[in-house]
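Hi there,

I know you've been waiting on this one. I reran it after we fixed the sequence typo, so this is the corrected version. Both the input and the resulting structure follow.
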Amino acid sequence: MLLDVDAQGLRLKSNREVTLTPMLVSDNAADTVRLKSFTIAGRNRYYHGIRNTPPSPIFLRAGEIDKTINYRDDTPWRDWMSTARLVIDTREGGCCNVTEAEDAIPVAQLDFEPKTFAPEYLYISPKAEAVKTRALKASAYIDFPVNKTVIYPDYRRNPAELAKIRATIDSVRSDKDITITSLHIKGYASPEGAYAANARLAEGRTEALRRYVQQLYSFPAGLITTSFEPEDWEGLRSRIAADPAIDHRDELLAIIDDPAYRDNPDGRDWKLRSTYPATGKMLLAEVYPALRHSDYAIDYTVRSYTSPEEIIEVMRTSPQKLSLQELYVAALSQEPGSDLYNEAFEIAVRMYPDDPTANLNAACSAMQRNDLRSAARYLDKAGDTPEARYARAIYTALSGDRAAAATMLKEGDATPQAADAARQLDTLINSDGRHFRLLTPDDTAIPDTPVGATGRSTANEPNEPNGCNNPH
């Protein structure tokens, strides 16, 4: 222990001395450690001590102390010392080593307890879905002979495209937990040629695909519905806009967007390809084929899962079948902070990337495992609820800005947990780098410590022969 003691102004009568003994004491009076004493004496008592045995290892003469006393003593560490108090036992006396006055002066309250920031993380229970409705969407590129609307399964790339359609339908149809509620097919034709002819082809080819699927699966009447788009101008515009290497890209987009051609698609196609024939030829060969496609969407429902064990099993194989609420149930069934606990929240935000609740819960999970980079990404989509603002304040504190975080926690419609988190931060801010608080004689925290019980007796003790008879 290091103490700086300023005794430069202390004056004592010639035959007086004061002995000071630093002590560490706890609330339990038995836990007391007395450190080495130091004595300041008047003139006669000082020379008496010099000629005989000084009463303390540090022995100084009052009035001749011209600098701060740098006191140091060591003692083995004990756990109770982390919250001990430093008290100075003072004993004043004169001849014959009689203690005439004694006191215990409070100096400091020590605090070496580890300071941590351990806020409560608020996880939000998602709303349960009454019916878990899902959709599976894909596109197929069926090849038809020129001006034909009949599907030839072995024609060009049709074997692969038809197999893709079957695989998509089978992936949900064969699942015992899934019920298909509808299948919608929308056919598109490319913009070249007459609009009326393209409308006939788009409608006929869509109907041909509907019949093909119906014959394969014998779905209930009305389950398959269709629509068609005679010319896929939106698809053409998107592909041109996405490719900066296309010559005259801006001019082509201006023609497509020109309102003068809103009701004249044939004129738009002629204008586009005749104004820039080389580019038009390239589009016809490389872009237009991809505009002849059939998009299909399978709507289905998934049964609910209630057992955490079953949910976890599905989570590992088919997480797309789970609702946010089911994933939440899976997480709560695990030890907080465990790998499976964190995995459930990560899967939830992956399955529902734009859902505020999924992002908020994932952010809390990330902060608990000190993954602040992921937490920041999730908090961007966590919404603006009191819980989300609370989580952002916690993130700010964990990122190092405790003062800003404490302010955030005290603002607005704070959550009930915000007050506790703010108190923790205030404690950290106020104790940063300091391990003691100075006390005053009026401090009520000082226990009743019998200062003579563990040290020198307060009874008369002969210090040396004939001490009282030596006035020097």
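Quick highlight: The two ends are 34 Å apart (CA to CA).

Best,
R. S.
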